[in-house]
Amino acid sequence: MDDELNSKLKPLRDRIDAIDAQLIALLNQRAAVALEVGEVKKHYNAPVFRPEREMQVIARLQQMSEGPLENAHIGAIWREIMAASRSLEKTQTVAFLGPVGTYSEQAMFEYFGQSIDGLPCPSIDEVFRSVEAGAAEFGVVPVENSSEGAVSRTLDLFLQTQLQIGGELALPIHHNLLTQGGSLAGVTRVCAHPQALAQCQHWLNANAPQLERHAVSSNAEAARIAAADPAVAAIAGDRAAAHYGLQIAHALIQDDPHNRTRFVMIGKVPAGPSGYDQTSTIVSVKNEPGAMYKLLEPLARHGVSMTRFESRPARVGTWEYYFYIDFEGHRDDERVAAALDELDRKAAFLKILGSYPRAR
């Protein structure tokens, strides 16, 4: 049986080995050209990472592909290829909400690839500060969750910063209940980020109502605590479980099976048009009749589709608000530019947070 199996597999494996030899030669050729691109960029002081260009490369290859690889596979493979090429020019540092093992870290690697240096930060504020100070070229921050809504601190910091949004990623959030021994025996409390506790409250009510619930700064911090205390369970993902040596007592305990968090990438360099873009703004209006209609009417008239509308108290007056508005298109697109020009004239305040490739 083994001889028959091996005789059938050997010619197929030989073909794979031959294809791999071609692939490695082509990948090294590609890397050599990427190094030439890097030299040209260096001469003109151009940025190493261009998210719109990488989005266009992946989209073109996905359109060319006839299978059996799916689009998600092609995206993952080429993201790593391009990340490795970037690292030959310069290994870039990306700040994220730490410690190691958070969903922010997972979002960072899925967006930038593995060939980067991650900089874990104790707070969202520190992610912004690290990028502003030059300790990191980019940062990754959560901006909203599909079940719990906006991440307020991120929205507030966007008012204060000069950083630009350069990209976004919608990450599926799979919460697990982690313990040292893989069971709840001897466990008296559960730790997690406040949003994770909220996203799992129905499961906890039904399956572990005896556990005291403690909010901590991140799910990875909860995993770190659980790794040091057998009486503690943590709500966190697979990455945290592996890093802190915990076992899964119960998997996929989030109340919403389609739970997702949207992350945005922040940096100092604006992204160019990719052909599939989104623009994020902060707007406030004068306190007068019809002010909101006057604000939104230019978007409709110029055919600009709004994708998100969020309000936050302005904290500078009674019942005054900032509105966080996302809409399709890049600020350099003619129709978007025209709508923004009118918004700027009609709004009491307008800040463009960035135009960037939309998550596909």
From TrEMBL:
GO terms for molecular function: chorismate mutase activity; prephenate dehydratase activity. It is found in: Cytoplasm. Its main location: cytoplasm. Residues 3-93 form the Chorismate mutase domain. Residues 280-357 form the ACT domain. Residues 93-268 form the Prephenate dehydratase domain. Gene3D superfamilies: 3.30.70.260, Chorismate mutase (1.20.59.10), Periplasmic binding protein-like II (3.40.190.10). Keywords: Amino-acid biosynthesis, Aromatic amino acid biosynthesis, Cytoplasm, Isomerase, Lyase, Multifunctional enzyme, Phenylalanine biosynthesis. GO terms for biological process: chorismate metabolic process; L-phenylalanine biosynthetic process. The keyword Cytoplasm applies. It comes from the Bacteria. InterPro entries: ACT-like_dom_sf, ACT_dom, Chor_mutase/pphenate_deHydtase, Chorismate_II_sf, CM_dom_sf, CM_II_prokaryot, G/b/e-P-prot_chorismate_mutase, Preph_deHydtase. The record marks 261 as: Essential for prephenate dehydratase activity. It catalyses: chorismate = prephenate; prephenate + H(+) = 3-phenylpyruvate + CO2 + H2O. GO terms for cellular component: cytoplasm. Pfam families: ACT, CM_2, PDT. Its EC number is 4.2.1.51, 5.4.99.5. Pathway: Metabolic intermediate biosynthesis; prephenate biosynthesis; prephenate from chorismate: step 1/1; Amino-acid biosynthesis; L-phenylalanine biosynthesis; phenylpyruvate from prephenate: step 1/1. Catalyzes the Claisen rearrangement of chorismate to prephenate and the decarboxylation/dehydration of prephenate to phenylpyruvate. This is Bifunctional chorismate mutase/prephenate dehydratase. It comes from Paraburkholderia caballeronis. The lineage of its organism: Bacteria, Pseudomonadati, Pseudomonadota, Betaproteobacteria, Burkholderiales.
